[in-house]
Write a structure and sequence with these properties.
It is built from no helices and 35 strands. It has 504 residues and is mostly beta strands.
Length: 504
């Protein structure tokens, strides 16, 4: 892949219509640090790219969602909505290519940082339109302050078919757990910066310090994802397809596992054995009180080693020691589904989820299959919908509790909404056109409850009737005011799991 570097001078911007893709070299960096940065597909999505990719950078960053920043056309980049994705990497983050700068040459962001956000970025090499071959790529973990400053990579993977994603902060805010598909066995030194990719894109759980140092694999058996810290920071839960005895054996169902934060003491909390049909457990959420874990699974409701009727998923809860495994929901109707994430209220008393279940609470799909936000008590009682959407073209998804538990934010009709914890007072925090989808996604509260970070896709119709999708991180105040971009990618964008550093 040929790359053409250019220099980004103090606060200047590249507005040339033929800006070349690839390298930003900060003129303030005596060592000539260069970053090649682009973005991967979000879960379940991948794209082909037509023509050569070009990057331009805007020089101002003071726009709001009401008056979106004007973004230079990045040279006619187009993407269709179909691609043969590399199976191991399709689980990463939204597609795109981006260029980022460092030092004083960085595009300025909004002022008033209240914390640090960790997220995933990557690079993809897709064939021209009409060429049927997979997209190849890699991803890295990045940090950015909520005022747009301090954008920097924590991992520096450059090998294709290799990536790191799913970053989550430790409760202390000093370490980050993440998933990496990079090889580490027999590849010295053991670091995700290795230029070798794991065979078949298999993944493992890693931890590193908040500055990217001391990156260490906690698992060395393939098929591990979805890390989540215990509230005391001593353990990490994850989903794994390893055999129940801990060996690396193919064909096993995905179970919920827990290990110590140093990688020792791995034990399964669920015990699905090998079966003909794959049965999975994923979307793990540890209760803030630390005593329980909730997750999504399509296992049979009687707890047997079989798939649920019609392969339908339900919410399950298990005690942190592996006892007390029970389903909180018990649907079997075809075409019902629960979307990630499932989130605990701060007091551990309730769970919120997005579900297309019938609003009358019968074992059926709501006509038209719109998803709504539901809540249930931690024991499964009191299950009820908080939203009551019936339009087949609108859904409510991606709920997140405010730190004090009094409110929930969620995505609906391509905007961020907020409502009281009982479902009352629902109102939009953003006012964006709903012509295209998605426009906003992945909203998360700041730890102090004053701000909300999310990903916003600026979608512009191109001259050939295609769409240019540019996801960026934005931050708004809790009342919906002060919407400002934190990142400023001109083509491509950011994506994946967003997480604020705890305590900020």
């Amino acid at each position: 892949m040929a790359v053409l570097p250019f220099i980004l001078q103090n606060g200047s911007s590249c507005k040339e219509p033929h800006c070349h893709r690839s390298l930003f070299v900060s003129s303030e960096q005596p060592s000539g640090v260069r970053f090649v940065t682009t973005l991967q597909p979000r879960r379940g999505r991948d794209f082909y790219e037509r023509g050569s990719l070009k990057v331009c950078v805007a020089s101002e960053g003071t726009s709001s969602l009401a008056a979106k920043p004007k973004r230079e056309d990045a040279g006619g980049v187009t993407k269709s909505t179909f691609c043969i994705a590399l199976a191991a990497l399709v689980l990463l983050v939204p597609f795109g290519r981006y260029g980022e700068e460092t030092g004083k040459g960085r595009v300025p962001g909004p002022h008033g940082a209240t914390g640090t956000i960790v997220f995933t970025l990557g690079e993809w090499d897709c064939p021209p339109r009409g060429i049927l071959r997979p997209c190849y790529g890699h991803s890295n973990i990045w940090l950015v302050n909520s005022d747009g400053s301090g954008s920097r990579p924590l991992t520096r993977i450059s090998a294709f078919q290799c990536g790191s994603d799913e970053p989550v902060w430790s409760p202390s805010g000093t370490r980050i757990a993440f998933t990496s598909t990079c090889a580490h066995q027999d590849v010295p030194p053991k670091t995700p910066y290795s230029e070798a990719a794991a065979i078949n894109g298999n993944s493992n759980i890693w931890v590193m310090n908040d500055d990217g140092s001391n990156a260490t694999p906690l698992t060395e058996i393939d098929g591990n994802r979805d890390p989540v810290w215990s509230p005391d920071g001593k353990k990490i839960a994850f989903s794994s397809g390893r055999a129940l005895d801990g060996n690396d054996a193919a064909g096993w169902n995905a179970n919920v596992w827990v290990l110590n934060s140093d990688g020792s003491g791995a034990v399964p909390l669920t015990r699905l054995a090998r079966s003909i049909r794959f049965v999975g457990s994923y979307g793990i959420a540890w209760s803030p009180g630390g005593s329980k874990l909730a997750f999504i699974s399509d296992r049979a409701l009687d707890g047997s080693n079989a798939q649920n009727t019609n392969e339908i998923t339900n919410i399950w809860v298990v005690n942190a020691d592996g006892s007390g495994l029970v389903p909180l929901t018990k649907l079997t109707a075809a075409h019902t589904y629960i979307s990630e994430p499932v989130v605990w209220s701060p007091d551990s008393h309730k769970l919120a989820l997005s579900w297309n279940r019938a609003l009358d609470s019968t074992d059926a799909v709501e006509p038209g299959s719109p998803s709504n936000i539901w809540v249930a008590n931690a024991d499964g009682s009191g299950l009820k919908p908080l939203t009551r959407i019936t339009d087949r073209f609108i859904s409510a998804s991606e709920p997140d509790w405010s730190p004090d538990g009094s409110k929930l934010i969620f995505v609906s009709n391509n905007n961020i909404w907020v409502m009281n914890a009982d479902g009352s007072g629902a109102k939009p925090l953003t006012n964006l056109p709903a012509k295209f989808s998605p426009v906003v996604f992945s909203p998360v509260w700041s730890p102090d409850g004053t701000k909300i970070a999310f990903q916003y896709t600026d979608i512009v119709e191109s001259t050939d009737s295609g769409l240019r999708k540019t996801p960026n991180i934005w931050v708004i105040n809790a009342d919906g005011s002060g919407a400002t971009p934190v990142t400023h990618w001109q083509s491509g964008g950011v994506g994946g799991r967003l997480a604020w550093r705890p305590g900020q």
